[in-house]
Amino acid sequence: xxxxxxxxxxxxxxxxxxxxxxxxxxxxxxxxxxxxxxxxxxxxxxxxxxxxxxxxxxxxxxxxxxxxxxxxxxxxxxxxxxxxxxxxxxxxxxxxxxxxxxxxxxxxxxxxxxxxxxxxxxxxxxxxxxxxxxxxxxxxxxxxxxxxxxxxxxxxxxxxxxxxxxxxxxxxxxxxxx
Length: 178
Ligand SMILES: NC(=O)c1ccc[n+]([C@@H]2O[C@H](COP(=O)([O-])OP(=O)(O)OC[C@H]3O[C@@H](n4cnc5c(N)ncnc54)[C@H](OP(=O)(O)O)[C@@H]3O)[C@@H](O)[C@H]2O)c1
What we know:
The protein is an alpha/beta fold. It has a single domain (about 1-170), classed as 3-Layer(aba) Sandwich (Dihydrofolate Reductase, subunit A). It is built from five helices and ten strands, in the order ββαβαββαβαββββα.
């Protein structure tokens, strides 16, 4: 299973207010996210999933929750990242895309093969953060595309695509068997 991760963060690593809102309006990034997730199996924390209610079209969300009685109104649920990966593998998926939020990014980062990061050229106050992806993990830059701010997108942004160097030696062993 190939594990990708997509996130948008500011210069100070903010990904959200922490109370149900994304503190920017960037339609270019929204389109980037929609294009990337098109047709894929996604892993989302229950908080992010509920925030995105009604958003999913042809994606298959797998919602992480510890609440055994929780039933998502769309997609599937899983009690752990391992279980989410097994669910996706069982449906024939070869990639699983982790879409946040903060708690889930932190937990899934050790297993990520590729990161698709939108670097927003602003420092914004927030309550949810992307983890330090360079702490102990080496990444190769695959692509970088920069865009200035414009009438629709209030901040400049860069789409950055990173691939993990030496995946097998650095990843925790439990996913190797999946
Ligand atoms: N900028 C971006 O790219 C981006 C993307 C996504 C989200 N966000 C932002 O991120 C923030 C939300 O992040 P968050 O950290 O508060 O919440 P979250 O990661 O979306 O969801 C946390 C919840 O997921 C479940 N969970 C997490 N790890 C689990 C595990 N290992 N096993 C089982 N269940 C697990 C738990 O649900 P239960 O409580 O039900 O047990 C937990 O309370 C929001 O501000 C949102 O806007 C930003």
